[in-house]
Amino acid sequence: MMKFASPLIDEATIEGVADVLRSGHITSGPWVVRFEAALSLFCEGRPVRVVTSATAAIEVALQLCDIGPGDEVITCAQSFFTVLNMIVKQGATPVFVDCDLVTRNIDLAAVEARIGPRTRAIVPTHWPGSLADMDALYRLARERGIRVIEDAALVIGSRYNGRPIGAIGDITTFSFHPNKNMTSIEGGALVVNDAEEARRVDVLRFHGIERLPDGTRDVGFPGGKFNLPDVNARIGVEQLARLPQFLAHRRTLVLRYFERFPMRFGCVLPPRPGDGDGQSWNMFCILLPHAAAPPRKAFRDALAARGIATGVSYEALHLTRLGRRYGYQRGDLPNTERIAESTVTLPLHAAMSVADVDRVCAACAEVLDEASR
Ligand SMILES: Cc1ncc(COP(=O)(O)O)c(C=O)c1O
Question: pTM score > 0.85 for this model?
């Protein structure tokens, strides 16, 4: 079975993990410090703190921005459950807006229209192949004193105006789950603005504990437990060093998808890569056409029967049972809903070959062809 996502862990990393296990220091320690330093260098020197997942990073980021009951957070409904869950977990109200049908990035005109007196933050999810318009986004946010938490789970390694995601902006969060551009098994990170914010993250990610001058400890906030173990950080350091190589290979595979994917059936593909566009490719998500295509489940089953695994990214957040509690209904966000109904994530990962892409494209052609007869 060809997986739709799979990490590439080399023997040196496995040996390195064994060394960490033998060292006796297996929870957060020197490798966390090294991983954070390497990520900070990657983000042009901005402070970075690692945590156990991007979900934890978004939770801590919302806490860092003092988001709570009575506050509204504007976010895109075409994203992973994390964003909705963490906003609600803080006691804040999610305000959903739609996305572009092709790039899937947040609709900034809709964001502007939904900003109100209770808006405290905007949480856009950046998409592989194309980033949200950061100039327009920060113009909107900064002139109104609204915080921005960029969910960059899918795009570590993408560049905006030549600069890496994470080097610019307010707060940026990354995921190192095994299906992302690089992994630490589970893991995530937040890029913050200054040393004081980094110090507050240190507290928020470890029980809310503050150390007092007399050697005792105190808590003034019910903090979580999100510190990343050294075993994971050891993997992350190696993966970050290999990220350029992973991204170059992913790009080669995407270019092949654009060469070989059968376009005659009316599927919508992501934005075509341009020379030197600086975009990274974590996923290759297509939209099945409305007509002359099998229903998505039949399409995915037919690919699975041919040994090809696929995914769905993503369901519509405003139509989840949790999202509907805030008064949303079908028809509110048409692009998000069209994507949620007909998107399919095709295999794309650094362990795949160009021949694998050809196999996926041939299988898609076969299945779509059979359905259109
Ligand atoms: C867009 C997006 N944001 C956040 C997350 C959460 O990442 P993690 O699994 O590291 O918590 C995911 C996970 O797939 C994601 O796809």
Answer: yes
Task: Report whether residue 188 contacts ligand 1, using a CB cutoff of 6 Å.
Answer: yes
Query: 54 CA to middle of ligand 1, Å?
Result: 6
Q: In the chain, where do the E strands start and end?
A: 48-51, 72-76, 93-97, 119-123, 147-151, 159-160, 163-164, 171-175, 188-191, 209-211, 217-219, 284-287, 343-346
Maximum Cα interatomic distance, the chain, rounded to a whole number of Å: 78
For CA atoms 32, 33, 36, 42, the dihedral sign is: negative
Residues forming the active site: 180
> pLDDT digit string (tens) for 24-58?
889 999 999 999 999 999 999 999 999 999 999 99
Q: Give the tokens for residue 116.
A: 């109100």
pLDDT of the residue at 154: 98
**Residue with CA closest to ligand 1 atom 15:** 80
Spacing, Cα 175 to ligand 1 middle (Å): 6
> Residue 107 pLDDT more than 80?
yes
